């Protein structure tokens, strides 16, 4: 552990040099760090164990410092702490907010100060709290998934604990983080110690982003001879400075049977695919806005360059340009790290969720509309064959602008197990591949549901599934080992409870009156009564695609999360 902490501290030191805040060195090694603001004036370090989390903030001010969490990224309702240093004495209190007003001191103090000082950079506060304080009224539980961190600071100190001065609009903000991610320094350390690694970049070289709201640009890459089989152990986004808000997501597909002449050829993915370019649906890398570098676990790598590995890749980049800005040049892409120091297991990626098409319908005027899509046990059984199990070790869950929560549910023998992943505070601007705390076994007979909760209350027309940012998606990309043939396990409703004639279905739904709650509830009921078509696909499956159609049955036993053992029961 000491060696890992030294590496972590060295990593932070290098980051400090690169960002120009060399004077900022934490009081002890931390596994995680980030700039919370956009100017490098508010820096956050943290680490955690099974029960507690420790934070340290370095803020460029000699006034008070605020830090906390809120479900929506606003300043209220929120769980916050405020501290400052005056005449060598550190003042620190646990607060909560309920309105656009000064925070209220908590009746029970659950955050504890460890250290406070002022230095050449500004104010330093180090503090700790339990992940679960059992105070559901004034505190927020720190759990897996997206957490919206809020921050504030002022140039002056308060005179008392209950006389905080308004920080103003320029000294406050929010940033979405996955505080309990297990992409730990262990992985960073292992990758940095390999001397036999080589890098390969998939880049959009000098691509002029069109002045349209949504662009899907594809570019082909024929990987040169890299000297035989390697394991991919690291995936890093390379985003052109200034384009961070426009590069929405990047997918890298690996393709069989592609003519090398398509190397470096670019085209609009869904509008102008070159003649002779075969279909390619094998996603091996998925990155989305807000995501960071992903490190494979020590025991897992992704095979590249082996005799049976395809050597042609297509990178799809989704550009989001809502104001239709022109003249932007992009060189963004993905950098992969490869090694001949093979890991024990070889990984693969599979995709669960809703088919990306118009039958994914989200009614308007709904504050929390729940969409469900399925991966059928028949698909799992077919692709596992005689293999006992595969193990999922990482996941990226994905939706668009209306998405508010995503959960990937897991079922076995009629009973629901704990979810693969749940993100009750999904943030469109913060999507990343996350290592699971514990690997999840997938066995014959297992099935899955991907649930997306949407807020369509601001729209007056139905939102459909599709590729535009204003369309919707509901997908989970899962990394697992050992690899089997499965690539996609998707579903779509047939709406056969409304009409058995698919040609008449859309004209009927396109003119549907969504304005009344009665009509929207009727649509939900008809959706429940409809059969579901399931798609099971893999490029080495025989046949490559299987289709099943049947009515989904609810599980006999639904998963109930255990209560925190440290909290009073009742």
UniProtKB/TrEMBL annotation:
What's this protein's name? DOMON domain-containing protein
Q: Where, subcellularly, is it found?
A: Membrane
SMART domains named among the record's database cross-references:
DoH
| Entry keyword Transmembrane helix | no
Sequence ranges assigned to domain DOMON in this UniProt record: 40-154
Q: Which UniProt keywords apply?
A: Copper, Disulfide bond, Glycoprotein, Membrane, Metal-binding, Monooxygenase, Oxidoreductase, Signal
Family the UniProt entry places it in:
Belongs to the copper type II ascorbate-dependent monooxygenase family.
Cofactor(s) needed for function: Cu(2+)
GO BP terms: dopamine catabolic process; norepinephrine biosynthetic process; octopamine biosynthetic process
Signal peptide as annotated in the record:
1-20
What is the organism field in this record? Potamilus streckersoni
Name the PROSITE patterns for this protein: DOMON
Q: Is-annotated flag, keyword RNA-binding?
A: no
**Molecular function as annotated in GO:** copper ion binding; dopamine beta-monooxygenase activity
């Amino acid at each position: 552990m000491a060696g890992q902490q030294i590496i972590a501290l060295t990593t932070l030191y290098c980051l400090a040099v690169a960002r120009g805040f060399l004077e900022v060195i934490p009081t002890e090694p931390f596994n995680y760090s980030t700039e919370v603001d956009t100017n490098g004036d508010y820096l956050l370090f943290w680490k955690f164990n099974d029960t507690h989390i420790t934070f340290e903030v370095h803020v460029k001010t000699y006034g008070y410092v605020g830090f906390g969490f809120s479900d929506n990224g606003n300043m209220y309702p929120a769980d916050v702490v405020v501290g400052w240093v005056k005449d060598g004495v550190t003042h620190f209190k646990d607060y909560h907010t309920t309105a656009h007003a000064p925070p209220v001191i908590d009746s029970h103090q659950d955050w504890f100060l460890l250290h406070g000082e002022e230095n050449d950079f500004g104010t330093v506060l180090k503090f700790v709290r339990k992940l679960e304080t059992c105070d559901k009224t004034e505190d927020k539980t720190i759990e897996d998934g997206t957490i919206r961190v809020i921050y504030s600071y002022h140039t002056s100190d308060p005179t008392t604990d209950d006389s905080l001065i308004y920080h103003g609009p320029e000294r406050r903000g929010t940033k979405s983080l996955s505080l309990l991610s297990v992409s730990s320094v262990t992985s960073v350390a292992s990758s940095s110690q390999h001397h036999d690694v080589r890098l390969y970049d998939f880049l959009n070289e000098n691509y002029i982003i069109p002045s349209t709201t949504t662009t899907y640009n594809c570019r082909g890459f024929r990987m040169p001879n890299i000297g035989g089989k390697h394991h991919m152990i690291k995936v890093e986004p390379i985003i052109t400075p200034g384009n961070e808000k426009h590069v929405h997501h990047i997918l890298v597909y690996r393709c069989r049977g592609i003519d090398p002449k398509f190397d470096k050829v670019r085209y609009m993915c869904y509008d102008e695919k070159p003649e002779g370019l075969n279909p390619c649906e094998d996603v091996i890398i998925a990155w989305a806005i807000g995501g960071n570098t992903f490190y494979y676990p020590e025991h897992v790598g992704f095979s590249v360059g082996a005799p049976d590995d395809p050597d042609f890749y297509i990178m799809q980049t989704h550009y989001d340009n809502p104001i239709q800005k022109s003249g932007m040049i992009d060189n963004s892409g993905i950098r992969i790290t490869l090694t001949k120091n093979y890991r024990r297991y070889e990984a693969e990626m599979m995709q669960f969720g809703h088919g990306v098409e118009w039958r994914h319908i989200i009614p308007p005027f709904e504050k929390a509309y729940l969409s469900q899509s399925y991966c059928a046990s028949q698909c799992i059984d077919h692709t596992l064959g005689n293999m006992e199990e595969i193990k999922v070790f990482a996941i990226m869950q994905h939706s668009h602008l209306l998405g508010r929560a995503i959960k990937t549910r897991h079922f076995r023998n009629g009973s629901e197990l704990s979810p693969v992943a749940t993100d009750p505070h999904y943030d469109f601007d913060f999507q990343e591949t996350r290592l699971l705390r514990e690997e999840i076994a997938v066995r014959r007979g297992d099935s899955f549901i991907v649930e997306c909760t949407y807020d369509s209350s601001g729209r007056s027309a139905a939102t459909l599934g599709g590729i535009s940012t204003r369309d919707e998606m509901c997908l989970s990309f899962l990394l697992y080992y050992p690899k089997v043939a499965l690539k996609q396990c998707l579903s779509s409703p047939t709406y056969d409870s409304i009409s058995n004639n698919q040609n008449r279905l859309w004209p009927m739904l396109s003119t549907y009156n969504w304005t009344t709650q009665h009509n929207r509830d009727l649509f939900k009921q008809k959706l429940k009564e409809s059969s579901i078509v399931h798609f099971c696909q893999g490029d080495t499956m025989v046949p490559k695609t299987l289709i099943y159609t049947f009515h989904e049955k609810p599980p006999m036993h639904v998963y109930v999360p255990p209560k925190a053992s440290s909290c009073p029961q009742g």
